[in-house]
Specification:
Blueprint (H helix, E strand, L loop, with lengths): L5 H20 L3 H17 L5 H19 L7 H34 L16 H16 L8 H9 L1 H4 L7 H8 L9 H37 L6 H31 L18 H7 L2 H12 L9 H19 L3 H27 L7 H23 L3 H12 L14 H15 L4 H4 L22 H16 L13
Helix pairs in contact: 1-2, 2-6, 3-4, 3-5, 3-6, 4-5, 6-8, 9-10, 9-16, 9-19, 10-15, 10-16, 10-17, 12-13, 13-14, 14-15, 15-16
């Protein structure tokens, strides 16, 4: 049950928030949070009810482990540290079994190290997200940084349906106090109008931009997988279509999640901030999947030593962090290469910054230099996305060869772009590269969201005209909803 499905929009959401409204109206705060936990578990179990057992046991085990990690118990630090290692290891082993066991077995078999068949293991949806959230909770509980220790709040922190399936990776300090065992929910007119508008903007990105772009991306990458020779035009069309599809798919989901939470007065962290406007790879990772970057920085890069042990160690830590980040996205070597490419990009980016600061300060202050930096950044991102999308190295290299060399002799174009297709690409480019993003339009209060340059008429206000515009946009976005419209990040 995805956010853009009829079941979610017309059945689940009205019932979930309608009952919540009734409970908060009669000040049944504890029952309100219990209801929302139950609704979130139903949302999660709608796809595969068997995995409700997994997520419930994970919540119970992690919350219980937190009790033994808490410094207030005055347990010897060495013992608490052992508990922490065990708790983190248990979470990683669970993730490793479901997500990576088949991958490692296949790798060992390919290397002829071992020959055994694990058989298919179905990946529980959202396991990467709720595993990382609970690991961050365990670490901070050990450090004494967790103040709100309510079990109900903790359970909702893990399963709250707007962020459960594909993020953002929320931090306990952002969520626990907001829940206040149900007393913080406010399904007011202001919240509902603001949240609905944000949700519709996300829905439109998904159904009106991401899904149509997916048609072109899927056709080209499927052809490459079958060994069909691609022309240069085909390869660039497929790569750019996927670049746009992934952007609007993730941007759409992120906006819908923020909107759903805002409907009841809950604030989720911003997870997406126009990354294709970046002038460097460093800036790209401050704008793309912001909460994953934050988690990798706080719970991997800094514990590895960060930048505290010299420049060489810093660059090694960057590379290792990005390799693990790539593997987090998927159990395939193509994802590892994608992470490695971004690690290499960041290393080069850092080296360039050091040299430029010393020998050419202010180098990127001119418009031509900024344009060149943007173009190089986008080219690097698009090349890496080819590995992210491809299902094999053979198909990835086939697409890249066609992109940067003349197509093979006898290759015939796989696509015939209509005027509507060109319009789709132009509109997608306008919203990705030029137009203000949803957070700016909605004036979302978050770091790095600049609204000073946004004209007042471009920002949302709760007026009758805005309501009509949102209604029309929502109508066409729902009309465009397809049957198979799963979000890309659901697979991670």
């Amino acid at each position: 049950m995805v956010f853009s499905s009829f079941e979610f929009i017309f059945l689940f959401l009205p019932v979930a928030y309608g009952v919540l409204l009734a409970l908060t109206h009669y000040r049944a705060s504890r029952w309100a949070i219990i209801w929302l936990i139950g609704a979130s578990l139903f949302f999660y179990g709608y796809w595969a009810p068997i995995y409700l057992i997994l997520i419930v046991l994970s919540i119970l085990a992690n919350f219980a482990a937190g009790y033994f990690l808490d410094p207030e118990r005055e347990t010897p630090k060495q013992q608490r540290r052992a508990y922490l290692i065990a708790a983190v290891a248990a979470n990683l082993l669970l993730l490793g079994y479901f997500k990576y066991l088949v991958f490692f077995a296949d790798t060992l078999r390919a290397l002829k190290v071992a020959d055994f068949d694990i058989g298919p293991i179905i990946l529980p949806i959202g396991i990467s997200f709720f595993t990382f959230q609970q690991i961050s909770y365990q670490v901070d509980r050990y450090l004494g940084k967790v103040g709100n220790k309510s079990f109900l709040n903790y359970a909702l922190f893990v399963v709250y349906f707007p962020q459960l399936i594909a993020g953002p990776i929320v931090h306990h300090k952002e969520m626990l106090d907001q829940f206040q065992e149900g007393r913080g929910f406010r399904l007011s007119f202001d919240n509902l109008s603001y949240g609905t508008t944000y949700f519709v903007l996300g829905l439109a990105k998904k159904t009106l931009l991401a899904d149509p772009l997916a048609v072109h991306a899927n056709a080209i990458f499927a052809a490459a997988e079958r060994g069909v020779a691609l022309t240069t035009a085909d390869a660039w069309t497929g790569a750019l279509a996927y670049t746009g599809q992934l952007y609007f798919d993730f941007a759409g989901y992120s906006s819908m999640a923020i909107g759903l939470a805002a409907m009841i007065g809950v604030k989720l962290p911003l997870n997406f901030n126009s990354p294709y406007k970046s002038l460097s790879i460093q800036e790209f990772w401050r704008r793309w999947h912001i909460t994953l970057s934050r988690f990798l920085r706080d719970y991997l890069y800094i514990p590895l030593g960060g930048n505290r042990h010299g420049e060489v160690r810093r660059l090694l830590n960057l590379m290792l962090t990005m390799l693990i980040g790539g593997l987090w996205h998927g159990a395939a070597w193509t994802f590892v290469v994608w992470g490695g490419l971004h690690g290499a990009y960041l290393v080069v980016n850092r080296a360039f910054d050091v040299v430029a600061e010393k020998f050419a300060p202010g180098l990127l202050s001119t418009i031509p230099a900024k344009a060149a930096a943007w173009l190089l950044t986008m080219l690097s991102v698009v090349v890496a996305w080819v590995f992210f999308r491809a299902t094999s190295f053979e198909s990835a290299f086939a697409v890249l060869r066609a992109m940067f060399a003349a197509g093979p002799e006898g290759a015939a174009s796989r696509l015939t772009l209509t005027a509507g297709d060109w319009a789709l690409f132009l509109v997608a480019g306008f919203f990705a590269f030029i137009a203000p993003n949803a957070a700016q339009i909605m004036r979302y209060d978050a770091p790095n969201i600049k609204t000073d340059s946004i004209k007042r008429w471009m920002t949302w206000r709760p007026t009758a005209m805005a309501a009509v515009a949102v209604g029309i946009l929502g109508f066409f976005a729902i009309l465009a909803t397809q049957k198979n419209n799963e979000f890309i990040y659901f697979q991670f």
